[in-house]
Amino acid sequence: xxxxxxxxxxxxxxxxxxxxxxxxxxxxxxxxxxxxxxxxxxxxxxxxxxxxxxxxxxxxxxxxxxxxxxxxxxxxxxxxxxxxxxxxxxxxxxxxxxxxxxxxxxxxxxxxxxxxxxxxxxxxxxxxxxxxxxxxxxxxxxxxxxxxxxxxxxxxxxxxxxxxxxxxxxxxxxxxxxxxxxxxxxxxxxxxxxxxxxxxxxxxxxxxxxxxxxxxxxxxxxxxxxxxxxxxxxxxxxxxxxxxxxxxxxxxxxxxxxxxxxxxxxxxxxxxxxxxxxxxxxxxxxxxxxxxxxxxxxxxxxxxxxxxxxxxxxxxxxxxxxxxxxxxxxxxxxxxxxxx
Amino acid sequence: xxxxxxxxxxxxxxxxxxxxxxxxxxxxxxxxxxxxxxxxxxxxxxxxxxxxxxxxxxxxxxxxxxxxxxxxxxxxxxxxxxxxxxxxxxxxxxxxxxxxxxxxxxxxxxxxxxxxxxxxxxxxxxxxxxxxxxxxxxxxxxxxxxxxxxxxxxxxxxxxxxxxxxxxxxxxxxxxxxxxxxxxxxxxxxxxxxxxxxxxxxxxxxxxxxxxxxxxxxxxxxxxxxxxxxxxxxxxxxxxxxxxxxxxxxxxxxxxxxxxxxxxxxxxxxxxxxxxxxxxxxxxxxxxxxxxxxxxxxxxxxxxxxxxxxxxxxxxxxxxxxxxxxxxxxxxxxxxxxxxxxxxxxxxxxxx
Lengths: 340, 352
Fold this sequence. Notes:
The complex is a heterodimer. Chain A is α/β, with parallel strands linked by helices. Chain A has a domain at 254-340. Chain A has 11 helices and 12 strands. In chain A, the strands form 2 sheets. An 8-stranded mixed beta sheet of chain A has the order 6-7-8-3-9-10-12-11, sandwiched between helices. Chain A has a 4-stranded antiparallel beta sheet with strand order 2-1-4-5. In chain A, a hairpin with a 2-residue loop joins strand 1 and strand 2 (27-39). Chain B is α/β, with parallel strands linked by helices. Chain B folds into 2 domains: 6-233, P-loop containing nucleotide triphosphate hydrolases (Rossmann fold); 255-263 and 273-327 and 335-352, no CATH class. Chain B has 10 helices and 12 strands. Chain B has an 8-stranded mixed beta sheet with strand order 6-7-8-3-9-10-12-11, with helices on both faces. In chain B, strands 2-1-4-5 form a 4-stranded antiparallel beta sheet. The chains are: A alpha/beta, B alpha/beta.
């Protein structure tokens, strides 16, 4: 879709070979293992995978918000072609990361409970943007309006607990926008919300993309959500991207057996004829990953060569890549969304 | 239960294993006001049937379920099990008969007990199985929920989320219930695991002939699993019916918005349901139809008159509480509320 090679500029966000190591009492493992992707201006990428696949850790590493037990072991993050400081945690001099902003799943714990939401939205314009108190307040009110908060003057003085989950999530998006970012990194921002409110928040993100050319990286476990708001999708398993490509092509005809299994396991409100199929086996222990392809012990297509060595991503179609030695078996129509 | 009221013999009720009639629950809130969480809710579920209860946070679905399970006493209204009314204080047998499963299995399992000890304790307390047969029964329960017998030696922390939910189900089944109520049983699980747990519920319904109530905000889950569906909004049921019929022709604008908002695997582009704002506070519900301030169809009558639940066409079991929800009625047959959307003038909820 957005494959124009028009702009001579570098991609908005370019992540190459990002590797994050996590320390556990029992040992160390790579929670993110050689993840690469790039996001064009105004592009949107959905990263999906099960718990523990490394999708949230990827976002945190980009943002410089890794927990103390994790560190970036390798790789680069470029924002508009410029590297961000390569620390695990944000430092004050880390100006380039200001072009990135993050929206979390749980707004209630991400917001300061003893500060009015208005003051929280005004904080960055004031401290980073150097605006006067009055100008920062005006800017904050503008932002509250932008994110669709009704009666912003009254809401400015509200505390987070006084707002509904949907409004809190809007406030968090307003805070994210307050630094004028080029990319919003969203970590399951609608998972805790009711479906109708989720639809409103997704609509807001979509509108912001259209109006401000904001790039969006959207981490979720919900394939349906990615299908609605993203152009591109990356499927993660055991810390690696196993398949990536245009969202429609990937979800309609997966080229990695794990993607196919995820699609087949999803419960869909329109899909009556199809009984959701569970993925056999379990997500592997990150400290004892199986040799070769990490999905191989659960994979219906696995053969002896799958356990031999690492399986890199390779081209499997226009703009698509998958890390599978035997994806042709899928392409031949063994599984996929065709039914009824 | 010798003092079961006379209605218990009412033949019309014979097929309902669990039945709730006109449940009302309110909670006191700050300022001496009351929040009516459940406002006149009735439903019934038969043996070997699954009733899906859908609605968003705060619609009262969990509160209604807690009344059914005997965890909460309603202000008024009755709950009947196999036709017999359940009092405010249930007997041990009645408590056993209705079991509830929660969203987060981990916090409902004792972290220090092996699964075997947990089950044996239950079986002992309820005097359900003689000691020599206990191991056999524990293994049988593991088989029912699709876990290997070796799982009996594990502690809750050693299992994945899906396995823990299976263990929670095994514990509920241990006391030989007649009704199983599951409150958002798959919401906390990874998508890849949800399917197996849903399938387990269907298997248990068929194998044990249980009556089940599945509470979920997820229409896909409910559609997949239920025989009957009830959609709740602000403490009321706004639409109910057989799953096929209801989903085949959703009538209530709120239920339509819910359906439109559900993410779909093969849909590209964003669904924008026709729904304004957020649910109002149940402390101060809107006049007339409670949905009118958010409703795309709202007309004057909706502000004034609370729509009574009625069949979408005469004799149908598909019920909707919307002035514009039923099929058009021929003029001579039905005076009263307008049945056609003649003038869907928008009435914005713009009062201060």
